[in-house]
Design a protein that fits this description.
Elements (H helix, E strand, L loop, with lengths): L6 H5 L1 H6 E6 L8 E9 L6 E6 L6 E5 L5 E4 L8 E6 L4 E6 L3 H6 L11 E3 H4 L13 H16 L10 H5 L7 H8 L3 H11 L4 H18 L8 H5 L4 H12 L3 H9 L6
Antiparallel strand pairs: 1-2, 2-7, 3-6, 4-5, 4-7, 5-8
Length: 266
């Protein structure tokens, strides 16, 4: 299954020292949700840490436990990797949806995020009662959001767009034509559908799939350095190296070296 890595929680010692970050997979949600994540401070001080958000195509429903603000964060797909500063004294809970899931379960096009990075939950669901969050403990808030997500899904079955990343995560296509054939669509029709369901082009979907596949095989130790680029079957290897560095700030070989040394510098 498609499962993007959360890089600072794996390698950045300052992040791990100051932030307690956890991910949990929920069986009842797994058709639409990658994980439920939570972030809480370990140290009681006014300090910020860098959080690297990688391009992954996932829309997230995030709630600030301290502020009680809940909203959808735009998929990190139309831009390169970027740094966010996360206040270490605040706590967050997030529902990481699979690419395409936001459109199926809300009925809204992913294009709503083209001009805005965030939508409040009330803009998407006018019936949401934010007052129900008042007085809840952190764990109760997480259970509230899990239950809310179950109601959103409402026993739906994932459509072919929601299952796309799962189907190709271990074997990324070598060309956009593979995607056109999967959906029995021409290039222009496929681009329109991808814009609606993912907010990006078929070519960008290929880039995300290749990037995360390469990241995972390096992290899991599945490949020697000489085999990495052969695994992703990218015809123009220098092009892929440039793309990988664009999204992570490191080439595949540089990332492998840092991973093997158990040191990751943002």
């Amino acid at each position: 299954m498609y499962y993007p890595l959360q890089i600072p929680a794996l390698f950045d010692e300052d992040f791990k020292k100051r932030v307690d970050y956890k991910e949990e997979m929920i069986d009842e949600l797994q058709d639409f949700v990658i994980c439920i994540w939570q972030m809480q401070p370990k140290i009681d001080e006014q300090r910020v840490v860098k959080d690297l958000v990688l391009i992954d195509g996932c829309t997230e429903l995030v709630i600030g436990y301290d502020t009680k603000y809940a909203g959808y964060a735009a998929p990190s797909m139309n831009r390169t990797a970027y740094d966010e500063v996360t206040a270490a004294e605040r706590s967050y809970i997030g529902v990481k949806f699979k690419p395409g899931a936001f459109t199926q379960i809300t009925g809204l096009s992913a294009e709503v995020f083209k001009e805005r990075r965030y939508l409040s939950i009330e803009e998407v669901d006018a019936d949401f009662d934010s007052g129900g969050l008042n007085g809840l403990s952190f764990e109760e808030t997480k259970l509230f959001m899990i239950d809310y997500t179950k109601k959103l899904i409402n026993n739906q079955q994932p459509n072919e767009f929601v299952t796309l990343f799962d189907d190709f995560c271990d074997n990324p296509p070598t060309s956009a034509e593979t995607l056109y054939q999967r959906f029995h669509l021409g290039a222009r029709q496929c681009q329109r559908h991808f814009s609606k369901h993912f907010g990006i082009t078929p070519q960008m979907v290929l880039t995300i799939l290749r990037f995360h596949y390469c990241l995972r095989v390096i992290t899991d130790g599945q490949a020697a350095p000489k085999d990495i680029l052969d695994l992703i079957q990218f015809s123009d290897q220098s092009h892929f190296i440039r793309e990988f560095k664009k999204y992570l700030g490191l080439t595949p070989y540089e990332y492998l070296k840092k991973y093997q040394n158990d040191v990751f510098l943002l």
